Amino acid sequence: MPRHNKAGKNGVDNGTWPLEEDLKALLLQYAKEGLSIYQRLRRLQDEHGLHIKRCTLLKLQKKHSIPTVRKPPPPDQAAQLILNKLQQIQMA
């Protein structure tokens, strides 16, 4: 067991992390808005006080299967999203 850093903290305050469900919802919303990685980082910092780096954000997006700006969802998911949106429009 290492002698240093017994508490397991790295000495950096990254802010308060939201719950996993809330974080996933935020990342999905940012993806829907078409924000770049750096815009997402800025919004997380400004709106939620979460200070993370690009690599951490990319890991979180991969963990939660968040689509990127350049990579659209697979065709079957895209078709379902379109059908859901059409249904919402018809109900309104």
Structure description:
By secondary structure, the protein is an all-alpha fold. It is built from four helices and no strands. The chain has helices at 20-32, 37-48, 54-63, 75-91. It is elongated. The mean pLDDT is 84.
Describe the secondary-structure layout.
Blueprint: H1 20-32, H2 37-48, H3 54-63, H4 75-91
Termini separation (Å)? 61 Å
Helix content: 55-70%
User: Class by helix and strand content?
Assistant: mainly alpha
- Main beta-sheet strand count, sense and barrel state: none
List keywords for this structure.
92 residues; mainly alpha; elongated
Summarize this entry quickly:
The model has no long low-confidence stretch (mean pLDDT 84). The chain is 57% helix and 0% strand. The chain has helices spanning 20-32, 37-48, 54-63, 75-91.
